[in-house]
Input
Amino acid sequence: MFKANVNKSFTKSFNTSEVKETDLTLITHNKFLLRHQSKNYEIDLVESNFNTKTYHLKINGNSYVVNLEDELDIKIAKMGFSMINSKKINSIISPMPGLILSINVKEGQKVKNGDVLLVLEAMKMENSIISPKDGIVKLISVKKGLTVEKSEHLIELS
Amino acid sequence: MKKILIANRGEIAIRVMKTAKKMGIKTVAVFSEADKKAPHTKFADEAIYIGDSPSNKSYLLGNKIIEVAKKLNVDAIHPGYGFLSENADFAKEVEDNNLIFIGPKSSSIATMGNKLAAKEAVKKYNIPMVPGEDKAIQSPKKTVATAKKIGFPILIKAAAGGGGKGMRIVYHENEILEQLKRAISEATSAFGNGSVFIEKYIESPRHIEIQILADSFGNVVHLFERECSIQRRHQKVIEEAPSSILTPELRKKMGEDAIKVAKACNYLGAGTVEFLVDKNLNYYFLEMNTRLQVEHPVTELISGIDLVEEQIKIAQGKPISFHQNELKIKGHALELRVYAEDSYQNFMPSIGTLIKYQLPKGDGIRVDNGFEEGMEIPIYYDPMLSKLITYGKTRNEAIQLMLMAIKSYKVDGIKTTLPFGKFVFEHVAFTSGNFDTHFVKKYFTEDIIQKIIAEESTIAAITALKLYLNEQKKIKIAKIN
Output
């Protein structure tokens, strides 16, 4: 029994017997062909680590980082030692580097799902960052005119 | 003309230099702080620093560029596309400094650069136009009333706009004020002119444009059409020539109208007349772009004409090197713009370092590229890395070659529009030719994207497990030994 976490957003569990029917052949150095349910996929292996069971692959030019867990890992996780904790989306983080053009809300303000929280300019496009839920603006960590990096904390909702 | 300066960066700077070199003309590159090591600076015969990274401190500094041009004894300036290419004041400054501007006269740029002035100029030529206002918006309240009269959806457009900036579709009355604000703000920051107007939004249109050339002897020819309907954020991503829907009669008629538009503004050089075509093949004049277009290579491939060479010859005062009746469409060409964007995340800019960057090669494959391995993607400019262009005897041949080229185009470190390209070129709506500017909205939906990601994630999971089990087996054998 194995569990695979892909890009920290997709999980799949399977028995080793399930993948017996699937052929994986090495084409050239770090390039593989996987035949799954009669479809062919070309896969590039970017990086792998046997000890941490981590595999960075490219399929159709898209990056996938797979983290495998075997039965022991799963058991440990079940006992509550798992490092992955599920968080509700209260933190609004910057999806890309850019410039804060305007902040449309104030701390303490009630917002609705879909309300424009702030406007971020990147590569000459203005992007409205909208609220993912109904809530209250708890904290605003940025100011108008500020340049932010990708994944920087912008606004905290509650 | 012995030496030209290219007032641009990236792939287009290199593209122009290639033709200049072929013609025995020396080239000068200009660069900003962020572009110190960029390929276009190395490709040129000379390269000169013009300022800080933000474009308003470098590539948009017309006076500075003219100053360095004079210092280096340059004869002519090629503006490329974007930046100063459609800036009438810059063209005028260049002329006033006794340098040649490789492009139209500043007066033509001024007329066509303002969509409202352009509408006015072509009015008398009986060219079909989109219903709407031909004046800039004065009061938002009045606009709501006008919008209701025209009927929703309506399109807000910047009079000075281009490249989809300052453009907003409005479906409902209650969205109009917020969208108007955004459009005016975007237009002001992008073009320094916040004047916007509204037009009826044509549903399911195709975006088809005609390439024209005009010389100083009064000759104007058209080099057929480019189909540019596959867009995201009102910006083109995929173009082709010829279009699969134009009949020879319609092509001829649109070509003739495009020539009339060029004549309406006393055009000189290479230009593009854009039309919207509805599902009944009615066409409407949209605007004229007074520069070399990003997507010009598809026209070059099907016509066999080097457009930059013609531009330079026209600027030298020579006539166009061929006649209309000598031109024939040969084969089919496709172009995919490779942007540093995450196709699966609403085409968000993807910034980082090109850890791996390998271009596809082969017959019928052309890559107009401005980047190399190890380079960082600067956040200051348009995120286009390159244009991947394929050419085949037939449309299908070009599509198959494109799919192969996408596969062998290797990029690590950032996300690109290559996966989106694969999706489009494999999609039945595209292969059948039955698509419009809503392709992304109709077919590249969140559901479909999630399905693709789920499928690829499953494949990744299986592959990882197979690789892990293989390694485990090897280690066990090693232990036994």
